[in-house]
Amino acid sequence: MNIFSSPDPAVKKLLGWKLGDEEDRWALKAVDSLVKKMRKRKNHCYGTVEDLEYALANPGSRSRCVTIPRSLDGRLQVSHRKGLPHVIYCRVWRWPNLQSHQELKTSEDCLFPYDARSEQICINPYHYHRVDQPNTGKIELSNKMSLLSSTPQLPPPNSLSSLLGSKSAVCGCASSSSCSSSSSYSSSFSSSFSTGQPNSTLQNHQQGGHLQQIGHFHLSPSALSDDDDYLSQLVPTISSHSIIAKNTYARPQPVYWCSICYYELNTRVGEPFKVSVNTVVIDGFTDPSSESRICLGLLSNVNRNFTIENTRRHIGMGIRLSCTDNGVLLFNQSDSAVFVQSRNANFKYGLQATAVCRVPPGGASMV
């Protein structure tokens, strides 16, 4: 099938940037479906066909996000194949041999990355970078584990991390472990050893800012990832030995990632809202506030005048704040524009520190 037989000039033009020997019929359907989705919507803040053409024609220039709505499972069906949207279109226009979303990293300018879990997914192929997969496969691990096959003795404690690799070192080789992280504004790490053996013991000693963990345990196969299942058959049982992890900082888990204060003119109204969930909506309605929603209509102020009352009527559906790996994303859900002054965003976009940015209805901005 000739990929240029499409009657739609926009589809034909976009297929001109297609790379590799990807199946022509499948690529045609993928691009045709994308063009139809973008033309069907009325909100151009999510990108247009022209924005995509500009990004493909000017790969070295900054370009806008080009998005499609997120499906229920986050994947896109094209003909007989189903995959992640950004992977599909990166494969069409940039890397024909792309195998997995784990090979992609979002650029800092992207407002709707796939991992942000927002309602839209950016498929602009130039908003993603390809990263090299670490070359630490089973061959390297099996060579190291062959040293243990002839002896039941435990290696020195300092060699545990190099022996089991980064994955098992982080999770503590335990049958139950917890590793948690928050946004770039604050981060913490916590891990625990457990055994699956009734007579196992665990002691934590914290001195001088360091955490010393001592435990007697057996290595559980459930602690290994699916990629390393074979390791459970090679590693001998480890028991009756103490493993000391030194120089590990113990930091408390943050309770919240942001604090929101509401002001009327120069007067703060109400108490600060402390947000611990990844996404929070701030609107002007009067429903009781919940963990993921703040309703400003509930707040009273005896000094409120006509100007303030008139302004509050325009809050409407308000804004949505989402904490992502790339920062905090503000989405304007109301019918009026909102104005943002963010030193972090201004520095990122090369603006003056005190610059104020206008976010139109339906628009978004990093803050």
Observed structural traits:
Dwarfin, SMAD_dom_Dwarfin-type, three-stranded antiparallel β-sheet, elongated, transcription regulation, metal ion binding, alpha+beta, single chain, Smad3, Chain A, 22% helix, I-SMAD binding, Tumour Suppressor Smad4
Structural features, described:
The chain has 367 residues and is α+β, with helices and mostly antiparallel strands. The protein has three domains: 3-130, SMAD MH1 domain (Smad3, Chain A, Alpha-Beta Complex); 146-248, no CATH class; 258-366, Tumour Suppressor Smad4, CATH 2.60.200. Helix content is 22%, strand content 22%. It has nine helices and 18 strands. The protein has helices at 9-15, 24-40, 49-57, 85-93, 138-145, 160-171, 231-234, 306-312, 343-348, and strands spanning 67-69, 76-78, 81-83, 104-106, 120-122, 128-130, 202-207, 210-215, 245-248, 258-264, 267-275, 279-283, 293-295, 319-324, 327-332, 338-340, 357-359, 364-366. The strands form seven sheets. Strands 13-12-14-15-18 form a five-stranded mixed sheet, with no helix packed on it. Strands 7-8-9 form a three-stranded antiparallel sheet, with no helix packed on it. The chain has a two-stranded antiparallel sheet with strand order 1-5. A hairpin with a 2-residue loop joins strand 2 and strand 3 (81-83). The longest helix has 17 residues, at 24-40. The radius of gyration is 26 Å and the shape is elongated.
